[in-house]
UniProtKB/TrEMBL annotation:
<dbReference type="InterPro" id="IPR057727">
    <property type="entry name" value="WCX_dom"/>
</dbReference>
<feature type="domain" description="WCX">
    <location>
        <begin position="48"/>
        <end position="124"/>
    </location>
</feature>
<dbReference type="InterPro" id="IPR051534">
    <property type="entry name" value="CBASS_pafABC_assoc_protein"/>
</dbReference>
<protein>
    <submittedName>
        <fullName>Transcriptional regulator</fullName>
    </submittedName>
</protein>
<dbReference type="Pfam" id="PF25583">
    <property type="entry name" value="WCX"/>
</dbReference>
């Protein structure tokens, strides 16, 4: 949805549209379906990344009920938890989505993103552990 106010169009998390005189051309071989494939949200990177995330049994049901543009695979675990496997080109948006589940989500792969998450958690621990 887009809303026009004071000459600005706001929507899809963007509210900084400005009129320019630049021309935009679409390449003849551009394929919108291929471009939109494997997105998680609206931001696309050129590189596809496959994530594996374990969700606790407390949230597994909600993960399976949600609708996704990228088509994740779900693997039910014996302990009631859920393994989600998805390949996406929207890595930052996927990680933000995953973080909303807090302790109920564990990023298993890829290792470099797991390490990035761990660095972020350590930084949060430093911030929240400070005494004022």
């Amino acid at each position: 949805m887009a809303i026009a106010t004071n000459g600005r169009i706001c929507g899809l998390s963007a509210c900084s549209v400005e009129l320019t005189h630049k021309k935009f051309y679409i390449e003849d071989d551009f394929d919108i379906d291929a471009y939109l494939a494997n997105l998680w949200g609206i931001t696309a990177s050129s590189e596809e990344v496959t994530f594996k995330v374990r969700f606790s049994k407390e949230v597994a049901r909600y993960i399976k009920e949600e609708r996704y543009e990228s088509r994740p695979d779900f693997v039910d675990q014996e302990d009631g938890s859920l393994l989600l496997i998805v390949t996406t080109r929207g890595t930052d948006e996927f990680l933000r989505w995953m973080k909303q589940f807090g302790k109920d989500a564990e990023l298993l792969e890829p290792v470099e993103y797991r390490e990035r998450m761990l660095d972020e958690i350590r930084e949060m621990e430093r911030r929240y552990g400070r005494k004022n």
